[in-house]
Amino acid sequence: MGSYAYFRQHIVPLEDAKVSIVTHALNYGTGCFEGIRGNWNPEHEQIYLFRMREHFDRLMRSARTLQIEIRESVEELCEVTVELVRRSGFQEDVYVRPIAYKSGEVIGVRLHDVEDDLNIFVAPFGAYLDADKGIRCCTSSWRRVPDTSIPGRAKVTGIYVNSALAKTEAWMHGCDEAIMLTQEGDVAEGSGENIFVVADGQLVTPSPSAGILVGITRNTVMELARTELGIETSERQIPRSELYGADECFLTGTAAHVAPIIEIDNRQIGNGAPGLITRKLMDLYEQVIRGNSARSREWCTPVVPAPVGA
Ligand code: PMP
Hints:
Layout: E1 4-7, E2 10-13, H1 24-28, E3 31-33, E4 36-41, E5 46-50, H2 52-65, H3 74-88, E6 94-102, E7 116-124, E8 135-139, H4 160-172, E9 177-181, E10 187-190, E11 194-199, E12 202-205, H5 216-229, E13 233-235, H6 240-244, E14 248-253, E15 257-264, E16 267-268, H7 276-289, H8 296-299, E17 300-302
Parallel strand pairs: 8-9, 8-15, 12-13
Antiparallel strand pairs: 1-2, 1-7, 3-6, 4-5, 4-6, 5-17, 6-7, 9-10, 11-12, 11-14, 14-15, 15-16
Helix pairs in contact: 2-3
The chain binds 4'-deoxy-4'-aminopyridoxal-5'-phosphate (PMP).
């Protein structure tokens, strides 16, 4: 057992996948990436890759924005990923990180006439946020980069400086996560998550026009809420002040799963504990990502070929 990487179109041991310090993407942030979860199911002795195809579809769209040419098809990328995770032999939750980037060893800020490459690595990865008790958030003084500057819907490596500034500011204020606002001051998203509010038994989340990354977990939660709980989601502008009066609030993301927010800017959300609808969604999400529900058949890829779902 050991970690492997897909590097220069071959699967190699992780320690052999190295790039030069001259690499364009390292110097200018000219890459785009994905985060895909592999979720370990101890009863099935199986890792399920969650919505892998949708992640690679998004990577393709991000790459088009950055004029990065990806040689592999989505199908091939899925096959390589399954093989990487299988060979690595982990029996725990993992994180798969594909990155398409300007690999040319040249100086000069541009997208044209620079070589491209695509790497994938896999690493063990447990909980990202400690979601059991609920998390404490603060709105950031750093505004979300607008679509007119760097498109947030493309998962561009360089744009994550914006997220890192916000996350560390939140941490320095004793919070678990930052909530970033748009340039106009409406709610956008967390540093690495989308955000939902529960109001009058319905879900509300910022629309893609707020410059957010349109999350795959966000979509999963909207689907589960509608089909399993009969709860609709409205995608609309959310003023910051609406957060403080929310009945419930939570974050969604591949790394964070569904994470209940119990405090924002020192104001208690709801009764200060994860809310009922949030807990139902956390549970449904947990079941589906581990291959334990009917919907898993559609969304989960087993790493060792086997029937999926209940
Ligand atoms: N917003 C940002 C800024 C993110 O980095 C992420 C994590 N990829 C998300 C939202 C959630 O997206 P997803 O559910 O596809 O992981």
